[in-house]
């Protein structure tokens, strides 16, 4: 157990942007909300997963919907408290701890805003080890833990307790409700025991974000250090030549084309994204495929760039990172592999693609 | 208190079609389900509203969604039981009685199917005295009774407990969830005390349906007798010349044009409908405006014809009936008057329009 204050949050926010792999929502609002709450209510306890009692009730807290809506409709913080209260009332039990559902983007920091206000600890773990767009795209789903009962709450004081048969139905129904309720809500989801959280989560994600953020903020050779810290690969170095984007039902789909520099001179790279970066091709050959992670970094500073931040002429390094082994099972690949997102590639590990 | 058996259900089904004012869903499936359940479990207790204890917990049960979907996806009956069980669990109380949310169409009979199976009585009352398409279009909404907590349940075993701030938000969110969950669900909605049910409902609707059905089945001059029983007006006698219909998000919108016969020879009548018949014009002049009731009857038999049943050349009588006085308040007209449905008419009572 240790305490997380404002300095740790600043670092985690940068690491969260990196693990957000271009999507996940800009961590900026999550960071502001966490900083504000910590300023007012004090530092938040961070528990390591092995400190959880078997019988603890652990409930991830997340924003659901389009992060672009959230920027215009900043949550007050009351929504996530309302969602937790409704779930406690429904279950007839107090929640012991919260945690992020995803390590990437805005949702890795929002639990701190909630935790500071209600005095709960945050568990140093998450259900993705990165960012993904849909509710069933978590290790809990792979392990048969139900997303339901799940609560959705909006700023108008509407709430829903959803009891769906599995994560896929939870996603479908909750997504429809979210669009109707204004496009961006807070949820309480995948209620689980301490034992389940310990066994099914990706462990240490928040500390890992902090470490990555620290490298980017302080290292003199941030990209080399990031490669080492993530067991990653530099997939490409180049300049952005072209970006195409379309927004469709809260999802951003598109691709970016890069022309090579340095070691990649006279090569070309294509990055395909759907909220998150999913496929990286160099001269038409796959170099990294979802669920392995792909993040575009500023070539000088190592700062991660979201898909919305990609601009013509930027000099970048594309970093590929192996995903957690939990994603590399058959059910994992079926849930978040290239085929699920409509790409015609068989998944191969980043290690195999970059031998 | 009296018992409702199969004969009463047959009559109520015809009366429900009449009060369905062209929409509300064909009572046929509701009738079949009620008959089946009564066949198997025996007659159902019908309580008059004044037999309710003040502290009773009364919960209407209804189908939500497009009745056209329901025809292809007949409910098993388990959905409404699941919805009631989930609501009881949520409220921590047993439900004392059920009732229809609307007197018109399929929803006036479905509560009998549920009641027979679970052994609950049905209250001889409803929230509309007719059929309307949206959840807030009930007398309970006018009286400030919340539609929430409301439960929606589907045949796949998904359920939602919705806590919305009012009937309008309940409608929006539940509608979106319904579309996602397959277009047709069962709900448990507007939980209320016996006192509220007694004071806010339209009283005696089911007995009234039965009486109307009895007239149509047995009278030698059904149309005259229906005019008398409903305090109604014959708005037009004629033949159907033209029908336009479009289906849009589960709603059927359109209009029918009739050319006059007998007393209306050389006149023309236009009927505008949105699921239900809403506006009746004769030679361009309004003769009946929502929330007053408009039903098209077969000129010979007096059998009601739904908007979907309107066919070129049919000889019909159009019957107009005054709505319950609860709808004639400012809030009532705002909720279900011509303006709400997008028509450019000020509401005037059918009595005033047919002096």
Automatic annotation (TrEMBL), chains A, B:
Residues 167-349 form the S-Me-THD-like C-terminal domain. Residues 8-163 form the S-Me-THD N-terminal domain. It holds the Pfam family S-Me-THD_C. The lineage of its organism: Bacteria, Bacillati, Bacillota, Bacilli, Bacillales. SUPFAM superfamilies: CV3147-like. It comes from the Bacteria. This is DUF917 domain-containing protein. InterPro entries: S-Me-THD-like_C, S-Me-THD_C_sf, S-Me-THD_N, S-Me-THD_N_sf.
């Amino acid at each position: 157990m240790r305490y997380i204050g404002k300095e740790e949050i600043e670092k985690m926010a940068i690491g969260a942007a990196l693990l957000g792999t271009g999507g996940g929502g800009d961590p900026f609002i999550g960071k502001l909300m966490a900083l504000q709450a910590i300023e007012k209510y004090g530092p938040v306890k961070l528990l390591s997963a092995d400190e959880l009692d078997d019988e603890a009730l652990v409930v991830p807290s997340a924003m659901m919907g389009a992060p672009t809506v959230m920027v215009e409709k900043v949550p007050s913080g009351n929504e996530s408290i309302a969602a937790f209260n409704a779930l406690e009332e429904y279950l007839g039990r107090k929640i012991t701890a919260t945690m992020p559902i995803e390590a990437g983007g805005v949702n890795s920091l929002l639990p701190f805003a909630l935790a500071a206000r209600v005095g709960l600890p945050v568990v140093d773990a998450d259900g993705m080890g990165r960012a993904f767009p849909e509710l069933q795209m978590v290790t809990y789903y792979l392990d048969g833990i139900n997303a339901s009962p799940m609560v959705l709450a909006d700023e108008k004081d509407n709430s829903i307790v959803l009891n769906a048969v599995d994560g896929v139905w939870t996603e479908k129904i909750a997504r429809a409700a979210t669009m109707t309720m204004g496009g961006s809500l807070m949820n309480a989801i995948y209620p689980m025991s301490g034992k389940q959280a310990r066994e099914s989560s990706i462990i240490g994600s928040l500390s890992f974000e902090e470490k990555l953020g620290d490298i980017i903020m302080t290292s003199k050779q941030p990209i080399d250090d990031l490669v080492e810290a993530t067991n990653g690969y530099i997939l490409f170095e180049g300049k952005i030549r072209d970006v195409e984007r379309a927004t469709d039902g809260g999802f951003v789909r598109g691709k970016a084309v890069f022309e090579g520099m340095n070691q990649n001179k006279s090569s070309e790279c294509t990055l395909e994204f759907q909220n998150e970066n999913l496929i990286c091709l160099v001269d038409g050959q796959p170099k990294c495929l979802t669920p392995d992670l792909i993040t575009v970094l500023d070539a000088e500073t190592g700062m991660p760039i979201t898909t919305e931040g990609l601009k013509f002429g930027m000099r970048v390094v594309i970093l590929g990172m192996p995903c957690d082994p939990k994603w590399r099972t058959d059910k994992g690949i079926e849930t978040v592999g290239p085929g699920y997102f409509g790409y015609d590639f068989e998944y191969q590990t980043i290690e195999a693609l970059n031998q």
